[in-house]
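Bumping with the actual sequence this time:
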Amino acid sequence: MSEGPAPGGVDARTTDSGVLIERVYDAASVAHLDLAERLGEPGHYPFTRGVHGDMYRRKPWTMRQYAGFATAEETNERFRYLLANGAPGLSVAFDLPTQLGMDSDDPLAEGEVGRVGVAIDSIEDMKRVFDGIPLDQVSTSMTINAPAAVLLLLYQLVGEEQGVDTRGLRGTIQNDVLKEYIARGNYIYPPKASMRLTTDTFAYCAAELPRWNTISISGYHIREAGSTAVQEIAFTIADGMAYVRGAMDAGLQVDKFAPRLSFFFNAHSNFMEEVAKFRAARRLWARIMRERFGAQDERSMTLRFHAQTGGSTLTAQQPDNNVVRVALQVLSAALGGAQSVHANGFDEALALPTEHSAKLALRTQQIIAAETGICDTVDPLGGGFFLESLTAELEERAEALINEVEERGGAVECIEFMRDAIADAAYRWHQALRDGERQVVGLNVQVEPEETDVDILKIDPEIERAQVRRVQDVRAGRDEAAVRGHLERVRAAAQGADNLLYPMRDALRARATVGEVCGVLREEYGEYDKLLAARG
């Protein structure tokens, strides 16, 4: 099933997902919808109007600015800068070797250390990232997937060394490896092994970190890969269903783990479709959790989500225009009921954000929260004829696509199907852009001679050499026999059925490195090969 343009004449207009837009909407447009049932009350099933009764009247969404680059010290400095400027939550970006479970001195890491995020090789690096930041007073999100359990354990160990009650640590790990196979590509192990790590993390956090969000099921990267809004909803929820099913198959009770599930969506540029998308996803998830998985606790039915503005919508041409794009995308996420939002820097089509662009992105969020009045009432656009029609249409289309995935065996069995559907949507989008059917200011309309004089962030190559020395120093200064013993216990757990996180935690506490822990699992589980998987 693919999303495409809706039928219509020369004046036909559609959303980015191909939903036909009528000339005008009125009471007749929503007469077929049972709005009382579909809307409900904020904070109650089906949560169309928000997961909390008072939403932003109580407090605005968390402004969780994403940061991480070069060294742990520089990332720590950026975190302190954001906290000092009013950001109540932190979000960590890791470099590519860390995302792939490699140490900085791995030959395959050469040229990538510290480039797109901070390099974390051991607990010593994690301690430097959070130096002087009391972990019991901040909420931290970590964008990490294949080695998510390892980075979570390092964070917990830093809290332990700070002397805080680690059971009170608050935050989120992305931990959504299915979307890596589908859209992003930063996977390590085959899907079955990855699912085991995910469900072991659910069980570990239920016992050890009860306030931690154990997964952020991500549609963001699905959208960045070129999906439509409908595909973003459908494939994200299909992935979520696979995680729920996997946890239940492992013996976990749905109402024990589901309240700690969270989601991560993209805020793109088709404003009304984006607001409707968030509301439709929330309603659809509530119904699926209650009707398909038998959840009884309303918290298990709430789709709590973080939103990030669309990186793929930003242009290197006329980069100042991106300030406007980001502001409107933040507004759509807020009107859609996000729990937290990251606003991209206007320069991110060119490089990692500078301190100036990061501060401007934060101020963008603060202005919207403080000056627009949208926090004064819950779901300000709710009940609008166009919005409710669009919400219902997106919900129905997404549900049909979810059902197709389920009929094909579920998300784990449908990686290639979803990947192909996204690629098709991306191709059609670029065709429309090329043909002028879609307009992007500065790119194919209002084009100007390119003159980019934006100051961009540059990473010093010496940073990689210094990080390599650091990880080697960690290995030289530890009890090697103790580390080897702990790694063998990780291997034994991988070969059996015991929860992997406990022996992994002990190994990391003894100064085992990220690459060493992930290396044991690589040896036991192997690595996922996209081409071999595609060939069956």
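The tokens above came from a reply further down the thread. The first strand starts at residue 13 and ends at 14.
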